[in-house]
Specification:
Elements lengths: L2 H19 E2 L3 E2 L5 E2 L2 E2 L2 H4 L2 H18 L5 E5 L4 H11 L7 E5 L12 E2 L9 E9 L3 H12 L3 E10 L5 H6 L4 E6 L5
Parallel strand pairs: 5-6, 5-8, 8-9, 9-10
Antiparallel strand pairs: 1-4, 2-3, 6-7
Helix pairs in contact: 1-3, 3-4
Length: 188
């Protein structure tokens, strides 16, 4: 994708995130910390346009930063639409990426597995972990850990938004190379 088209699509995605996902209000984050703003990325990513933009842009990043990747996934529920959008849009490019989801808790019946979509995964397969919002980095680090426990080779992580708080991006980057599409400053 030419750089100007990438930038145009990135700008449009940010507009959607600002309009549909960003709120200035008091909120308690998953970490338990209070914040005066919230970014609910699902409100954007679950629209048809948002799905297209995320899938297209994440594929572009993966092609540039992790061309060896063969699958993409992350912690449910935040990463599910990101992984699905990326997988779907990869079908139109040269690098096919299957999606997988990582449960917050192991399945309580049947196989008791942590990952869904495992039929298309193989040991040592290079994968990318995706995340909607990074604050402490906890869920991204759990995703990396669970993927590695399954035997996958996590080669990159992509976050839609880095809140630039609590050292989350730095914690993730200490484990795996990280690309953040947007940062807190993009919303203010």
């Amino acid at each position: 994708m030419p750089q100007d088209l990438f930038q145009n699509r990135r700008t449009r995605l940010l507009e959607l995130l600002r309009d549909l996902s960003y709120q200035e209000r008091d909120v308690v984050l998953a970490s338990g910390r209070r914040s005066n703003f919230y970014v609910d990325c699902r409100q954007t990513v679950l629209t048809a346009e948002g799905h297209f933009l995320v899938g297209t842009l994440f594929n572009h990043i993966i092609a540039a930063k992790a061309p060896e990747a063969q699958a993409v996934g992350g912690i449910s529920v935040g990463a599910d639409p990101l992984a699905s959008a990326t997988s779907l849009m990869s079908q139109f490019g040269s690098q096919i990426l299957n999606a997988f989801y990582i449960r917050k808790e192991p399945k309580k019946h049947g196989t008791s597995q942590w990952l869904e979509g495992t039929a298309s995964l193989a040991p040592d397969m290079p994968v990318v972990v995706v995340e909607d919002v990074i604050t402490t980095g906890g869920s991204t680090l759990r995703a990396v850990e669970r993927a590695r426990e399954f035997g996958l080779n996590v080669v990159h992580a992509i976050a839609l938004v880095d809140r630039q708080e609590d050292g989350g991006a730095e914690a993730v980057a200490a484990e795996v190379e990280l690309t953040a599409m947007f940062r807190q400053e993009d919303f203010r």
